[in-house]
Predict the structure.
Amino acid sequence: MDRQLTKRGSAFLAFGLALAAVAVAAGCGVGGGSRSASDRPAAKVAGPWRAIANAPGPISAGRTSVWTGSEMIVTGVNPGSDGTYIDSTRVAEAYSPRTNAWRVLPTPPKVEDGCKSTAAWTGKEMLVWSCGLTAYNPATNQWRRLPDAPTRHGIAIWTGRELVGWGGGCCGDVSDDGSAYNPATNTWRKLAPAPISGQQSPIGAFTGQELVIFNGHGPGGDRVGGAAYNPRTDTWRRIPSLPGIRALTAVYDGNEIYAVGGPRVFSFNPSNDKWRMLPRATSDAGHAAVWTGDRLIVSGSTTQAYDPPRDLWRAFSSSPLGSRQDAEAVWTGHELIVWGGLVPQASGAPKYLADGAGFIPPRYSPPLPQCSC
């Protein structure tokens, strides 16, 4: 019995020493330790991009897109034969990653031009909120025009029950109100008045409980504060202003909202209304941004991923698409698809693009658990 206990004690000692070695390797030593993740430089890692098939044609204005679970649907407006939008044409196209092929969709219903377009996927339909509301059902391959909203333009999100939109404007005009559409009843309701003035291009995200809108600018360049709207209670609350930058894109990770707008990226925690500044990205972060479930991926002139547990950026191989503006981006569940956009020209109209690419990030390896030793 004593010999067996001695053997067991030796085994446990060896196992404990092995665990200690792992702990030291993981940075769990007593005293000292490595620098914080935010102080360490981002590692350079190659990531696989692939070119996707070109769309049947570019979309010049009012581009907006959704991911349905099997296709990326893109819709917008192209100018008439005279190059103006007086006799514009609405267009819609859908891309399937499984077949690497596009299909032309039926022509969307005609609505007034000149409004910012925003789209949301309900699980059944693509709702496009602009100067009017339209809906596309992939199962029936049909568009339909929905009742006119009390308001228009601005940001729009899907809550699981309603399409909620707020703000927006054009050409010196700005809106400080919003409305919500319920597909089950095919009716609209007006939102309670917001505690902030209007924004022409509001940026924000839906957390599952609130539509959080960052501070922005009015038509005259005056600074507008941020606020959060709760659709369930039809109430607003003010939030602290975003420091430093003007966001171009907002992405929610289930805990924080990332405000992406350049090499400086900030995050907002709606549970405590706190902002924090992320480590500086390796270059301009661009505005094509998605949350993968474990990382924030942003793509512009470069492609980078922010790893929240490690608090650092990782750079991947550059997109084959080169530099462009206003590209559409969706996350399929395992691939980032970037498509379209424009390239400004020295004179005349921009060059509108119909090409795209897909990026599958390398498999994520979560950091080893940290411990206090």
About this structure: The longest helix spans residues 2-25. DSSP finds one helix and 32 strands in the chain. The helical segments are 2-25. The CA atoms of residues 167 and 177 lie 6 Å apart.
